Amino acid sequence: MRGKEGAVRSLNKSWMNSLGGWLNVWCFHVF
In this predicted model, what pLDDT tens digit does every residue of 1-24 receive, in sequence order? Predict the structure, then answer.
């Protein structure tokens, strides 16, 4: 249970990082 929760958290972290990166790239291209 505990390991699964940690894995989900790290996955969410990396997902948010990639999402933020794409947002930055998109903003730079638009503005």
Answer: 578 888 888 888 988 889 989 988
- Give the whole-angstrom CA distance, residue 31 versus residue 14: 26
> The tokens of 14 are what?
């990396």
CA distance 15 to 21: 10
Number of structural domains found in the chain: 1
- What pLDDT was estimated at residue 31? 62
Instruction: State whether the Cα torsion 23-26-29-31 is positive or negative.
Output: negative
